[in-house]
Design brief:
There is one protein chain. This protein has helices spanning about 1-15, 25-40. With about 50 residues, it is mainly α.
């Protein structure tokens, strides 16, 4: 579900902006989301800029 929310947010941002702020960190976001979705226990994501 987190991946779906992230994708929906990116699609919404695509319509409003020319470039997503922090686009260079998108690979780190994808990795963090993948790790969060493969874990059985609830976790808090810590993404640094």
């Amino acid at each position: 579900m987190r991946l779906r929310w992230a994708a929906t947010g990116m699609l919404a941002a695509e319509q409003q902006f020319r470039r997503v702020k922090g686009y260079r960190q998108l690979p780190a976001l994808a990795t963090a989301l993948e790790q969060a979705t493969t874990t059985d226990t609830p976790t808090t994501l810590a993404v640094t800029a």
